[in-house]
Every structure is written in structure tokens, then in C-alpha cells.
Amino acid sequence: MTKQINLGGSFTITKTSLSVNRMGYGAMQLAGQDGDKRVWGPPRDVPGAIAVLRDALASGVNHIDTSDFYGPHVTNQIIKQALHPYPDDLVIVTKVGARRDSEGSWLHARSRQAIIDAVHDNLRNLGLDVLQVVNLRLGGFAAPDEEPFEEPLSALAELKQQGLVQHIGLSTVSASQLAEAQRITEIVCVQNFYNLAQRGDDQFIDDLAAQGIAYVPYFPLGGFSPLQSAELNTAANILLIPGTSSVKHLHENLQAAALQLSPETIASLDSIGGPGQ
Question: Which of 25, 70, 86, 194 is catalytic?
Fold first, then answer.
């Protein structure tokens, strides 16, 4: 029997009834790979992927980050196969605003109809009547772009009014874009590229905390291009929505919630993102 792990305490998402443990699970790696096409098609070991999801929940995970453009469709279908009907305390956060072409490229999909279609794809493949949190994916792969987004966000807000979406978040956005978005609808979370070497959001994180808005960093160790640092290799596994397709690796990731870092280790890690790094 899997032992429950202390996952860093809990956090209640502002102005919602959703309470999640601070370490969740990122489902992107559940999809397979076809040559150079990453996050594409089914995994080699579907039963293994199902086992990872079930073991994550048995370990105490109650927050899964996903999207229907992972696979595409595959990741959400595996989540449904593994976990449906879902536990009452499970929070599934998904994303819209992108799509995949036949070459596996990640393309923008931000028209009003694209947002509507994406929400319905997520509902169908997850087997849900309502999505708890939907992040609107903006920007490029790792950094915000100053681009208009009133059309896709307004479409998402309409779907919220229709009862198909409970709460809305943003992904890959700047502080000014958040302020603009809040004039359209309430924003409960922000998911941006952030790690020890990418610290541009430090002040943004403080500002979000003051508003009670959750911040969920993606690629905390560099993503597809992992950070290279002797200090990091020695000291830390800093993950909030760690993703893996291995039960063994899942347990290693979740143990990061119990790490106790000395002041010296923290100073060494801080140096990774310092001047000239």
C-alpha cells in the first residue's frame, strides 16, 4: 500500500473552495514521443502511465496539471481511464490557447471558436461536465509576448458564465497583462516559466502573493533543456508540479516536499541566477 507523503502543506486558491497540496503532478510526460515529436501520441506503457496517476493520488497528490493538446488528447484520456470517477478533493487544472499540427509543432489557437472547441475537447476527454480551472496559454514557449488577448479571454469568461468553467487562470503572462486580464474576468492563478536561472518573475510572485493569486512555475529545472549546474545537482529537486511516467521517479519527486535546505545551500542555489550566470 502506498504511503501518503506530506506534500508541503496545502493552499486554498483565492476566492474558491479549491484546496490543493503544494506539490501536485504535471501530466505532460504521460504522452509518448514519435521521433522528434515530443508529447505526442500514446506512451509505450499505457498501464505504467495509469499506475503513475493512481500512485500519485495514493501518495497524497490532489492537483493535476494537464491539457488536451498534450498528445494531443492522449494525456486527458489516460487521466480519465486511470482516475474517473474522480475523488471529490482532486483538482484538475487544464490549459487552452494552443494546438498541435501534424508535424508536432505547438501553434497558437486563440480565436473565440478555438477556445470554445478546446474547452469542449477537455470536457469530453476528461469525462467532466465542468472544468475546475482553465488556464489561458499566452506568450511564446517560455516568455510572455505583448499581444492582444481580449478575444480568447472573453470567450473563456463566457464559458465560465455558462457554467462550463469554474475558474480562470493565465499562463506565460506579464504583470501588465494580468492587470489587463483582471478587467475582463477574475484570475485565480498564474503559470509561468520560472526556475533558479530564470528569476524575472521574483517581484511578480510577491505581487501575486499580496493578491492571494497562486503562482505555479513550469520547467523549474529547465524543461526540455535541463539546467546544468554543479550546485543544483548537489542540492535540490525544486518541483511543484513534477511530471514523470515512472512510479519510481514519481516517489523521488514527491520526496522533494520534505527537503530541508541550509542557509549555505540556499545561498549557493541563489548564485545560479545571479549576475553573469
Answer: 70
